[in-house]
Amino acid sequence: MLDKTCVHVFSQGGLHFAVDGNSGAVHVLDDTALELITSILESDKIASREDIVQYLKLHPAFEEVGAEVLELVDAGLLFSADLTEVPPRPESVVKALCLNVAHDCNLRCAYCFASTGDFQGERELMPWEVAKAAADFLIKSSKHRRQLEIDFFGGEPLLNWPVVERTVEYAKEQAEKHGKSFRFTITTNGLGLTPAIADFINENMYNVVLSLDGRREVNDGLRQTASGRGSVYDIVVPKFQRLVEGRQGKSYYVRGTFTADNLDFSEDVAHLADLGFTQISIEPVVTSEDSGWALREEHLPEILKEYERLAELFLERRRTDRPFSFFHFNVELKKGPCLYKRLSGCGAGYEYLAVTPKGELYPCHQFVGREDFLLGSVWDGVTNQGLPPKFKDAHVLNSPICRECWAKYYCSGGCVKNNLEAAASFQGVDELSCNLEKKRLECAFYIQACSQTSYQWE
What we know:
This protein is of the alpha/beta class. Among the domains are: 7-85; 96-329, Alpha-Beta Barrel (TIM Barrel). Helices cover 38% and strands 16% of the residues.
């Protein structure tokens, strides 16, 4: 039988595509191939390979391209079968921690999910003793796994810089003793960035995320200092430029947020590229629906068109001295993530945990402060044993909606927190996020096709 539920056809920029979601194959089509595959998808009478053969006999105009379609079917690259069950999974261990070293911030961003840094609680900094215990907990809980990660987050982690610095040094020392290796990441708004801090980050941090929304008027419209004085844009841009210049090829992202106030966010990406930043990510805002800048269903057509404009900008800039990489267009078709990563994404709640300044453990930073998602502490470990299995089982094959989606092995089901907020279920989906991800994937495939020297049907 043909599995037609996860085959997706679309057109963009004058090119036609068929995506076989189960196998991950992406095919560039000519007009005839598009017509044939669309006919197969829409016909209730074509359910098997033999049905395609019979259809081709009745429609000789499709004979040549039909033979190629049958070859792809036989190779498992079109109308391919999906997994019927999840293969046995290796033991899951905690391999990454998000250290909320500061539940405080020197900005007052209007859309902040963390309530301007305090996570709906008191403003506080993580003591060194908690950070040390967190590193020890990670080393112990990781068991056989060698490669570990610590993300310094907040709030604004530079407000607690001495603890960040000391944690890096301590984790490195302990890694040598226990046969481990650490990768460190930090996310910062840049206000407290000094040359010395930037140099330490560039020497020790595997990745750095720099928060900046784009054009001055966009960034400063919703991102203001705690005092309300000065332009955040004017303060941080030169600091970010200096830090990025010192990265010397190491990973970084300038990470922005787009809202209902800047649905023309491709202009913000272009602006960031003009500033000299080459690794860029602009994310849709996640905020309460009653806020003036929330993204709503009526914004969707405009947002989808904007992603198409961004794809054209990406291709145009690649031919100039201002090229850039856009996070959501980086899709690996030949060497992607392992199966388990494709099934459930980030591992929040069982492989990736967040630590508060008090040492509490949560599934990720998005859940901090929600008592029903409290997992335990860095001293006692995970004591809420019933919660991790719920996150582990929140994968695409357990979701009725995701199971029949062509994009499931690319998006891995999306953000569990967003899905829970939108659908009140671990197996639900956030439909707006889902639609945005599908469009970003289409743009990514289009960009890759435009990178080829020819677009013939293969």
